[in-house]
Amino acid sequence: MDSASAAASAPAPRTDALTLEVVELIGTVVARYHDEYEEAAAQHSLTGAQARVLGLLTLEPMPMRRIAQKLKCEPSNVTGIVDRLEVRGLVERRPDPADRRVKLAAPTAQGRETARRLRDSLDFAREPLAQLSTEERTVLRDLLRRMLGEAG
């Protein structure tokens, strides 16, 4: 297939009014969530990045490189964030039982409690979602997963 036929068979970019409105609404939701997350972090004397790392570590302890991959940043940035969380007693470093050469960052009991309180203080999404039925929330979840290319 030559480049002219490939271009002709490719789907046209979606710039209709509905698509543009949906994109704008998604942007507004993301901005509001980000603003609330930063405010909640500040109420716990954390930066947004520190709060994200702490929240991630409450799911499972992990090495700096994996934290950096999940947050899409440089491992050196994560090291500084973990250092500051460790000084505050919210995170500790421990050897990885599978490979003692690797250090895992893990939340302390105080870190888990701080992450829980921070999560509980976020109600931007909870409030509007509570107004949707279970069926509507399920449809929304499934559509978001589909947009992200995740299996349902």
Automatic annotation (TrEMBL):
Q: Which PROSITE patterns match?
A: HTH_MARR_1, HTH_MARR_2
Domain HTH marR-type positions: 19-149
Q: Which InterPro entries match?
A: HTH_MarR-typ, MarR/SlyA-like, Tscrpt_reg_MarR-type_CS, WH-like_DNA-bd_sf, WH_DNA-bd_sf
One Pfam family in the UniProt entry: MarR
Please verify whether the record's keywords include Iron-sulfur.
Answer: no
Keywords annotated in UniProt: DNA-binding, Transcription, Transcription regulation
The organism's superkingdom is given as Bacteria
The name this protein carries in UniProt is MarR family transcriptional regulator
Q: Report whether Zinc shows up as a keyword of the record.
A: no
What organism does the record attribute this protein to?
Streptomyces chengmaiensis
